[in-house]
Amino acid sequence: MGNASYQLQGGTAVITLDNPPVNGLGHALRSHIVSSMDQAQADAKVSSIVLIGSGRAFSGGADIREFNTPKSNAEPTFQTMIAVVEDSKKPVIAAIGGACMGGGLELALGCHFRVAVAGAQIALPEVKLGILPGAGGTQRLSRVVGVETAVNMIVSGSVVASEQLKGTALFDEFIEGAQSGDLLAGALAFADKVVAEKRPMKRVRDIKIDYPNAQAFFQFARNTVGAMAKNFPAPLKCVDAVAASVAKPFAEGLAFERKLFVELVQTTESMALRHAFFGERACAKIPDVPEGTPTRKISRVAVIGAGTMGGGISMNFVNAGIPVTLLEMKQDALDRGIAVIRKNYESSMKKGRLTQEALDGRMALLTGTLSYDDLKDADLVIEAVFEEIGVKEQVFRKLDEVAKQGAILASNTSTLDLNRIAGFTKRPQDVIGLHFFSPANVMKLLEVVRGAATGKDVLATVMQLAKKIKKTAVVSGVCDGFIGNRMLEQYMRQGLFLLDEGATPQQVDRALEKWGMAMGMFRMSDLAGNDIGWMIRKRRYVEHPDISYSKIGDRICEQGRFGQKTGSGWYLYQAGRRDAIPDPEVDTLIENYRKEMGITPRKISDQEIVERCIFALVNEGARLLEEGIALRASDIDMVYLTGYGFPLYRGGPMLYADTIGLYSVVRAMKGFAAAGDERFWEPAALMASLAGDGKTFN
Ligand code: NAD
Q1: Residues 239-264: what's their mean pLDDT?
Q2: Distance of CA 384 from the midpoint of ligand 1 (Å)
Q3: What is this structure's pTM?
Q4: Exposure string (b/e) for 510-522, b if CB count within 10 Å is 16 or more?
């Protein structure tokens, strides 16, 4: 019956959980555990039962492959399985090594005894998916490790090493110095002891919690957790559930935990967190590049251009232990680039995040050069030079001459046509876009731009490499702006229209930030440089004279107000500080522009601001899906969650649209069209048809 084995070892029935990679408690495994328990009860030769995991885990919890499927809730459910174990007439011992998390820990807590090795990873991480442990974890953990530790573990979801919980009632014995094989031997010896000594069966549910300070502690916990969790309801509910383990009899506490669990599963915040969890896994998959596609070996990387991006990009690889050769045109530019990298590491060291030794190790992996000869051993070359097609052409023609056969040639371009860049070489199959975000050593997002000729093995290689440098890699087809910036352009375009019509930059930013964006669009534009958008718009005016734009952004740039780097933009900035200070001069510029355009300003609500900006993102996202530039809606959401400060609790623009309903989104767009720019608010065909069918993006 799959997933587990049942063996008799002397008088002990050994039930081995075997569902790689982490013995996820899927339906088949739960069924097997229950039937093995029944078999052990019925067998007179059995006097004790050991539950143990195969491989390197006891159990990582629910089987994520069954999430959101009927199997996840099918009988035997977690509750049933745990009740069967806990009600056993014969002592059940959990032998814990490796991961023991979520439902896996809840199962262990249903056992009568637990033995463990040091280094086992103990956690109830459900809160990270916006829920709480729903199979007794909140009621049983506090009974064995104490209320405060339980609250900490359940509210944070963090992993705690088993040895840190030594001395609590969670563990009856540590199997010292155990290799993985010894855990079973130790558990069997322990089982014999339990039987020989006729130790009473200990059921966690029967433990009475004695905690006189309960009220004060939970008051304190609610205050702290409430302030930290802000937009997420689950952490506070975790506190409530643990509080119930103190205040209520076990059965009532269990029912209360269940009630909270069911409530949380239905919240949009939990949906958003689960969406992001699965979105992260989904974006690594490319339908026509299956697992097992051959990859190329990347043991040396070269980066061309030691500017803002080149430096950050180099740090990613050095941090992962991969040597980097950094090429510049001139010695002083190279020295400057390397000095910035060193300064970055030194600042981490000052904050205690890096040792001197690690700093030295990383700098030793970095070699500067002015000569293309030094790139001939590189397995991957990433170009991060000026954003001019002529410069890119020079670099890629040169790379085509010097790079070794099979080297991957990547461009970090934000706006240029990757297919054209690939065309500068005689090996377009080796060319790919790796679009990092600034600061490249910090930002999680990496857009992987797939050119028309990009080889599948090249794609497979960079997707694998992205994991190694801890990036969320999302594949984008070739188009102007790729996924993220193409959507951003429409969002900013709406923002400028809002200024025309009567809003101020502060009002737009405040509304977006209140709604959850990490940074309002005008503050963000000041940070990135207003000249970038200006350059793009100037190109659009020529290429697409039919598209309407507000020119207010140009007026700002014409005054040299490029943002933080020039000390002024949509806001004012004091030297060395990043606070955005509202500037009456900007208000005057906007007022004058309105007069010039004959616009009478009106009062615009925060709701209208948010809807127009966010729906502009959604509509462009739908077009990207329609055109096949993005592979799936959740990829778009991952781009916005990891690269653009979109609020995690809303799950990304596409999920957000799904949660309010595409019908309502399309209806709102039609309303905006009726009130103003009809062309802008033409709903993407895909969205209009999904809305008509009552369907969603995801
Ligand atoms: P930058 O001006 O800070 O750095 C470019 C560096 O390239 C300079 O140090 C310059 O000396 C060097 N360089 C120029 N021509 C060269 C050549 N022929 N050979 C070797 N070195 C040369 O620019 P940046 O902001 O780092 O941008 C680099 C690339 O990254 C551009 O394509 C840009 O569009 C892209 N990008 C930038 C950002 C960003 O936020 N700055 C984000 C994503 C992508």
Answers
A1: 97
A2: 4
A3: 0.93
A4: ebbbebbbebbbb
